[in-house]
């Protein structure tokens, strides 16, 4: 199943705990709660480019399945990521967290990020 497309967040689970773990202030968390993140996924063979649009902030993550890539982390620092794919799931392994992207059906993208004991889930629908 292809990930290619544009998706908008419908709901999130455990956002506040996840953002606190990343060092966000209460003010930042309140501002982010109301933003409907739009994610655009480009998929060309094993190469992915994901663009998250969060209000006026844009974050681009590009990676290739089976290779280590360097991406901008949530705090703007460079982070090494290794990507693998199994069917409708892409797993991104980083030094301090793991993210699984899954197409649960042709219109639903679920992103589950685990950092230590904190699990953040973002459910997005194709737009």
Automatic annotation (TrEMBL):
Looking up Pfam families in the UniProt record yields: Lipocalin_7
Output the superkingdom of the source species: Eukaryota
Quote the InterPro entries the UniProt record gives. Calycin (IPR012674), Fatty_acid-bd (IPR000463)
Which spans are transmembrane here?
A: none
Q: What GO terms are given for molecular function? A: lipid binding
Q: What is this protein called?
A: Fatty acid binding protein 1-B.1-like
Instruction: Supply the source organism's classification.
Output: Eukaryota, Metazoa, Chordata, Craniata, Vertebrata
């Amino acid at each position: 199943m292809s990930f290619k497309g544009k998706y908008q967040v419908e709901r999130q689970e455990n956002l506040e705990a996840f953002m606190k773990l990343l060092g966000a202030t209460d003010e930042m968390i309140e501002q982010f709660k109301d933003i409907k993140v739009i994610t655009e996924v480009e998929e060309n063979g094993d190469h992915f480019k994901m663009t998250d649009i969060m209000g006026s902030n844009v974050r681009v993550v590009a990676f290739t399945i089976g290779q280590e890539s360097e991406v901008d982390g949530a705090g703007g620092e460079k982070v090494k990521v290794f990507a693998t794919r199994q069917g409708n799931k892409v797993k991104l392994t980083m030094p301090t967290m793991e993210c699984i992207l899954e197409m649960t059906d042709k219109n639903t993208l679920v992103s589950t990020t685990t950092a230590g004991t904190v699990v953040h889930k973002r459910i997005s629908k194709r737009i």
